[in-house]
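Preliminary data (for renewal application), hypoxanthine complex.
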Amino acid sequence: MTVHIGAEKGDIAPTVLMPGDPYRAKWAAETFLNDARCINEVRGMLGFTGTWNGHPVTIQGSGMGMPSLSIYANELIKDYNAQTLIRIGSCGGMQEHVKIRDVILAMTASTLSTPSRGIFKELNFAPCADYGLLAAAHKAAADKNVPTHVGGIYSSDVFYDERPDLNEQMVRHGILGVEMEAAELYNLAARHKRRALAVLTVSDHLLTHEALPAEDREKTFGDMVEIALQAAFA
Ligand code: HPA
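Predicted structure:
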């Protein structure tokens, strides 16, 4: 057990999928894993471990934002020795050619700040995905015919953004989408020599102001889980 995860050491698999929403973790585990059992309920941040195609997999909620994800990813890496961490989440589209429901594979994640700021200080470290995972996810998405974009995303600290000028610069520099967790996941993976990737579904759009209808969320979320699982064990 750690401060925030109630699981015993052997209860967490080397491969961990991390949705922001703990109920998504429950749904994904029940839908895609065999013999899934709940391994964490501390603070309602549900985690489940089961198998996929015979491989042990944990699906653990991260909560929203980098401070929350950082707590869970730190404990998964340092205390449970997680080796592969894949964020599965939603993002806001930031380019015209990126449509609602499309998948984004985050090659890099720009930020204003992360919980790792204290280490980097004036350095602008470039958080990036594991290339092997990225390439495998790209192939899995192509095999499933899911419209997919590979490129930079923006990990923001705020959902209700009072700095439209920053978003404008992100759009101008080709950033595909905005979410709130990936950059810190990539920082931690780099620091501890683990593999990380963020697989994201475009759930809303900053330019068109469209949003994914609630009834469509499950199907598109399912594609994302399958892409992440196939990438992890490619
Ligand atoms: N902003 C930040 N995070 C998000 C968004 C957004 O528009 N959509 C999904 N996650």
